[in-house]
Amino acid sequence: MQLTEILKLATGALASNKLRSGLTMLGIAVGVFSVIGVMTVISGLRSNIEQGLNVLGANSFQLTRTPPINFSDPRQRFANRRNIDYTMATRLRDLLGDSATVSLQIRRQGRVVTYLDRRTNPNVLLGGTDEHFVTSRNFDVAGGRNLGREDVEFGRPVVVLGADVSNRIFINEEPVGKLVRIDGQNYTVIGVLAAKGSSFGQSQDNVAIIPITRFLQVYGNAGRSISINVQAPSQELLPAVQDRAIGTMRLVRGLDPEDPNDFEVFSNDSLIEAFNSIAGIVAVGAFVISAIALLASGVGVMNIMLVSVTERTKEIGIRKSIGAKKRNILSQFLIEAVTLSLAGGLAGVGFGIIAGNGVALVLSAEMIFPWAWALAGLLVCGGIGVTFGMYPAWKAANLDPIEALRYE
Hints:
By secondary structure, the chain is α+β, with helices and mostly antiparallel strands. The protein is built from 15 helices and 14 strands. Strands 1, 2, 3, 4, 5, 6, 7, 8, 9, 12, 13 and 14 form a twelve-stranded mixed beta sheet that branches. A two-stranded antiparallel sheet has the order 10-11. α1 crosses α13 and α13 runs antiparallel to α14. It is elongated, with a radius of gyration of 32 Å. The two termini are 26 Å apart.
């Protein structure tokens, strides 16, 4: 028999049982969808991961109470850790001296910035920091000036606005020198940060920064932990500065030599490494889910093909009686099983790519078509069709034509 004729018979048999075939293909599609969707998202994120996680300045690392990427509840897991208060932070800065540039940072989410009758949404990130924040976080000042040392020393009521905040409340108006209100406090705008864009779908320009001393005066010290950004003079000196900063932090925290660190140290590289580790775990999870779904779908393929063989026993007997050979019957049912699997695989690849790129679009990541994963998914589906369709096809090919013709 010609291949085209076999394909026509196979597709016709599948079309005659639309619901049964559709449910089987759905199981295969779900298995392929899970892994293709996840790998599409991860591949898209990897293409701009360095830009997205490059939140710290060059040659920089941070010391914090809790890790920046954490999927457990930090209030439970790190409940026994002491906060890094202002006294500890300033002592660390003084002990490091001129060997590194130290920036102190603390923040409060969900603030509203008001100017006259205009106000922002209640989602502005208010940061208490110092004159080194701009370089430590890779910002530039577009207008006015940055926070100064005296602003921090005297706790002056001044603020530097992010581009989104400035554009929202100052329309065709110069913001520098104007008074704005945040949580009932008046602040004089001394500068505006240059637009930095978004990272993983979240704007980095929806911020306002004030001197950290002013922040602590208004909101208090209780329950607040300060993040410390340390910037080495060069990339070559970064490891030595980091080792010294860790040792100094242990001294400031009063830790004994045998005590583990009760603080976290991270840099751009460690953030990227943490993301890759998480991405790897997610990929493994997607593979496990996909393998279970595809295994169940393979059993479904075998089941539907066995039912098909039973229903078409008389047809097989007629074809054998007029000269069809075993290999013809075997090919027909095997191609039918592979067609069923590949149809489900194609649907899973299509929906997986659409869903994966949809998530990537939300996260402002690059939209891609994962050719390698799509091809691998279809090859796996073809293998499932061959593996789980072989027994029903062999059973059909070995039916006795006399007994098959007698079957009712």
